[in-house]
Amino acid sequence: MMDSTDKTAARRLRGENTPELDRRVAALPEAQQFALLNDPDPQQRTAAARALGSRHRSAAVPLLCARLQVETALYSRIAVSEALGLIGSPAIPALIALLGKIGNNQHQTLPTRGFYKKSFPLPRDIVTRTLIKIGCPALAPLENVVLTGERPAVLEAIDGIGHIAWTENDRRSEPVLLSAFQSSPSDVLIQWKLIRAFQAFPSAPVRAILTEVILSSPLSELRWEAVRSLALHGRPFSANLQQAIQADPHPEVQKVARFFSE
Description:
Structural class: mainly alpha
Number of strands: 0
Strand content: under 5%
CATH topology of the largest domain: Leucine-rich Repeat Variant
Largest sheet: none
CATH architecture of the largest domain: Alpha Horseshoe
């Protein structure tokens, strides 16, 4: 078992630093802060990212995005993402270009169980996580990705739209998601992501889609995700739908329904 000294050293190797170092790096000229983004010491990289984010320096976006693509130290990676989030709208185009391209943590297959929280799931893609920090200004560019982008980017853009719509209660993107659902009937991963995003859109057209999925989809993963999204709209299920869920052959569908009806 690691003692407290070992744990502190391990956190430093992952880029955790001190307020004193943050203050020292924040007082440096901008050119030195830029250089420190590529310093061998992850603590210096963390401090540099925090300093540039606090200044809202759009000139730092290319360097921060380049760092985001290669950063392996946890706290430094978080600091770079947070810095881009603080810079905000000027960072959106560069981030959009990186959707689905960093790391391999993105969903590649359908899940094997439901998601048992009443919040919107945190996206796996680091770029999407950064864009949701920027919030509503990212919606239009994300919509454009859903409509015209390559599939890996589309998958992450759907997550971004759903998360922003849920947390900001902004439903402007619903027509784009409805169109994407109708145009991708054979892509089960896109369908699943859209069904999850639909938790943020309690409209009649969305509810009709979710109901149809529960009643007709041959894929249990889509059925239990539709049950969850529909339940999060906060309206009771019809008697017919309740009966269908209770009769569903997959226990996860029934388990999700019980959890979100409590």
